[in-house]
Amino acid sequence: MEIMRLVVTGPVGAGKSTFIRTISEIEVVDTDRRATDETADLKSSTTVAFDFGRLQFGPDTALHLYGTPGQARFDFMWDILIRKAHAYIMLVAAHRPHEFRYSRRMLAFMRQRSDAPVILGLTHMDLDKAWSQKDILLALGYVKGSQQPPVIVVNPTDQQSTTRAILTLVQYYFTILQAAPHPQVYEASQPCS
Amino acid sequence: MAITGHLAEFSLAEIFQFLEQGHKTGLLTITPLPEPTDHHTSRSHYIWFQQGRITTAANRSDGRGLVTLIDKRGWLGSHAAGRLLKSCDLSTPAGLCFKSQGILEADQLRMLFYIQVMQQVCALFALEDGWFHFDSSQKTPLSEATGLSAPALDVTLSGLRALKNWTVLEEKLPDPNAALISMIDGKPTLKLKQAEWQVWEFTDGRTSLKEIAKHLQLSVRQIQQIAFRLIVVSLLEEVPILKPVSTPQPPLISSQPPKAAAAEATPSPAKKLPPSSPETVNATREPVSQSFLNNLMGFLKNQA
Fold it and tell me: Which chain A residues touch B292 with a CB distance below 8 Å?
């Protein structure tokens, strides 16, 4: 079985669990638990380990999707997931500027741990309080002249929208792979069984 | 689209970082919350930016903030200053106009700018909450401008160094168990204080803020505050330090049920394994073949 692993990450309430539930062909295995801290202000439950979804598109080929926990204190799980991910999408709610700093910190963490390609998925762009794409990139630390990731506006509840986001991510991974001067950088020291 | 919100959510330091990094031009309006009940107290504060630099600030919107400051110092009556302003070139900041007419010296302009910006704006860092709005269509009013400007990050550093009550920023402070990494190449060009330089020396991604505090014999809270200052002027970033974890096992590479994997992936104090490091990243990621990617992209295109 050949598997590609994609990670869906972002702050609490960005829509990670919903995104995976929307696109997965199987019933998502989640580890949501009742929120008892400040997260409870946003939603009644939160992901404490990770969400898992799958898309099988051939007899021996499948896409696995992992949603990270949104809370910082579970960061060991981010590490496990990101180290195994081929690519990841960071979901950012465009109308919640107070989460931009946290997203920025998550991106710094991810970049430190992995060279996997990332794209940004902006949610809630239709709301009045939503910041523009350009300003969100800036708030996340992508200043003029720096290499910016592809950005896509996504509705985590919409199947076509989430599929387009995953397609963008896979296409970006493909582009990066094609452009890599030394493809062996992606070789693993231990074969998957 | 909106650049608006509450200071309790997006702090003044973060706004300044955003405006400086984006080389923004426009007017930032800060309205304290709850709004003052005293009608004599100004309701809003205005800070103008030009290409990410602060050009002037005022707590009134009638364009007479600068002449009032000059009047208060007894350098020129506000009526006389107002009349002189009318004779100024329409493209010259009032401060430079007064200087060219021999009314103000360069030192006096610097003092006016210090009062306008460094004093008035730095005081805003202590606001517990407020509503902010940035309007990029507004340019610096020449009647309020001295002709001087300061990088927003310099003002942030000064404002946060002077801040006594950090309650408002409590939730923004970096985690004492996190480490720091540099976000720049080379050394900072900003003028840092000794303690800031000392913290800067620990940007290795491994030493926690708690450990830095021990090394420097400062409180953890002091180190958090210094680190926050350096983060919002784009010198540092906070990264979590991870506990040693076991090498990830299925289902990340097989079809084992995720719940079992979640349990397995939980760090076990009994296992003595080396901490994961960036160097090991590529060793744990299997490539996918080009035919796999082509098939997947075709499949997704059909679905979308």
Answer: 2, 4, 61
Closest Cβ opposite residue A86 in set B259, B285, B290: B285
CA distance B19 to B133: 12
Half-sphere exposure of A125 (CA within 13 A, CB side): 17
Top-tier CATH class for A2-179? alpha beta
Nearest CA-CA distance, residue B196 and chain A, Å: 20
pLDDT for the residue B260:
38
Q: Tell me the domain boundaries of chain B.
A: 4-152, 173-239
Specify which residues B49 forms β-bridges with. B26, B54
Closest CA to B229 of B146, B175, B158: B158
Name the token pair of A145. 């002249």
Q: Which ranges in chain B belong to alpha helices (H)? A: 12-21, 65-72, 78-86, 94-100, 106-113, 120-124, 152-162, 194-200, 209-216, 220-232, 258-265, 290-303
Interface test with A, best of B282, B289, B290, B297 (most A CBs within 10 A): B282
Distance of CA B186 to the CA centre of its chain: 20
Give the Cα separation of A14 and B126 in Å (integer): 30
Cβ–Cβ below 8 Å for B248 and A189: no
Residues A91, A102: Cα–Cα separation, whole Å = 12
- Does the beta-carbon distance from A188 to B283 stay under 8 Å? yes
Domain boundaries, chain A: 2-179
ipTM over 0.85? The verdict is: no
Chain A residues lying within 8 Å of B296, measured CB to CB: 4, 57, 61, 63, 170
Model confidence, pTM: 0.79
Return mean pLDDT, chain B: 83
Confidence of residue A80 (pLDDT cuts 50, 70, 90): confident
Token pair, residue B6, equals 């509450």
Chain segment A149-160, per-residue pLDDT in tens? 999 999 999 999
Please give the residue of chain B at the shortest CA–CA distance from A192.
B253
Q: List the single residue in B3, B245, B296 with the smallest CB-CB distance to A76.
A: B245
Fold held by B173-239: Arc Repressor Mutant, subunit A (1.10.10)
